[in-house]
Specification:
The complex is a heterodimer of chains A (182) and B (153). By secondary structure, chain A is mostly helical. Chain A has helices at residues 3-12, 15-37, 40-56, 67-92, 115-130, 133-144, 149-156, 160-178. The model of chain B is unreliable at 105-113 (pLDDT under 50). The chains are: A mainly alpha (182), B mainly alpha (153).
């Protein structure tokens, strides 16, 4: 089923189309959200929310972007909203130290990588998590999801120039944090 | 430097950077650090939990309004039809009861056999008689139109 027929099916409320949508995009969306949310349980909730939002607004989808780009944008926004909520909660919760909401899932690291590479990746993720949200976001989009500058600008709703300068600042901050391990 | 790292540079930009790095040790070291940093980003996709799809489908079905906006409209249409059918049934019921109460053997049928004009002209019908006539016909709307026209005349 191509995107056009899939969208038509979704607009008509076809169960088959919904299954096709999930079969095709659930995995990708799950991993995108996981990179922001970093807790599999919370990721499941956010992914559910993403598909609910998508179905609620499918009537307004008009192929200005591809179906995946549209879903991806919903997913990134939902993941960022979740992080904001979690951070507000973290700020007021005295239980946060025990509650490892931002646990880095072990299954997301490469088991075939040499130990030093694994350690670098682990430290990098910790450093990444300490960056201001806008820098963290842009690095995740670029380095984990391999989005081009053009695609990042569409997802974040900013210019390509902003993408370039923000990436430069984000990398520079990260490099300084990681300097002794590089 | 970053556009080269991200494969977003033009050939000319990449050439200029290479030429600069060849003669600048500091920038060369900085570029190497950025490359090592970039290599540290390793993304391996994780398979979503098998139950997730079922959960999403279940939630979507539970919120059928979100999933099937057109079905929602259709069901609204069915509701309207049902409501109209109920009103029609009430009217038919009321008409039937009216007929029984009046107890007249003579029934008026539409489909061309009843000439309301004759009916209303021949009998100098009074207001009290209008209702029974309307009750006895299966086309009260036409009867009323004729009655009103005659009254206007």
């Amino acid at each position: 089923m191509n995107d056009t027929r899939l969208v038509e099916g979704l607009k008509e409320g076809s169960d088959e189309a919904v299954r096709e949508l999930l079969d095709r995009f659930q995995g990708k969306i799950f991993n995108t959200v996981l990179r922001f949310v970093q807790s599999t349980t919370d990721t499941e909730d956010v992914v559910q929310e993403v598909f609910m939002k998508a179905m609620r607004s499918i009537d307004s989808f008009n192929f200005q972007a591809s179906l995946y780009t549209w879903l991806y944008r919903i997913a990134v926004n939902a993941a960022l909203d979740h992080r904001k909520r979690a951070q507000r909660h973290k700020a007021v919760s005295i239980h946060h130290v025990e509650d490892k909401t931002y646990e880095i899932p072990a299954e997301n690291s490469d088991p075939t990588a040499p130990p030093e590479q694994k350690e670098l990746a682990q430290r990098l993720r910790i450093a990444l998590d300490e960056l201001p949200e806008k820098y963290r976001t842009i690095l995740v989009l670029r380095e984990f999801d391999y989005l081009s500058y053009e695609e990042i600008s569409k997802v974040l709703g900013c210019s390509k120039g902003t993408v370039e300068s923000r990436l430069f600042r984000a990398r520079e901050r990260l490099r300084k944090k990681m300097e002794k391990y590089l | 430097m970053h556009v080269v790292l991200d494969d977003e540079a033009t050939e000319r930009q990449a050439d200029r950077l290479r030429a600069h790095l060849a003669r600048c040790g500091d920038c060369s070291e900085l570029f190497a650090q950025y490359r090592r940093l970039k290599a540290g980003f390793v993304a391996r996709d994780v398979a979503p939990p098998p139950a997730l799809q079922a959960r999403i489908l279940e939630q979507l079905r539970a919120r059928d309004d979100s999933l099937h906006p057109h079905r929602r409209d259709a069901s609204r249409g069915v509701l309207i039809l049902l409501r109209r059918a109920a009103v029609a049934a009430l009217l038919v019921g009321a008409l039937s009861i009216g007929l029984i109460l009046i107890g007249q053997n003579e029934t008026l049928t539409a489909s061309g056999t009843v000439h309301y004009e004759d009916l209303f002209r021949d009998r100098s019908i009074t207001a009290d008689e209008i209702l029974p006539v309307l009750i006895k016909t299966d086309n009260p709307e036409d009867a009323l139109k004729v009655l009103w026209r005659l009254e206007d005349e």
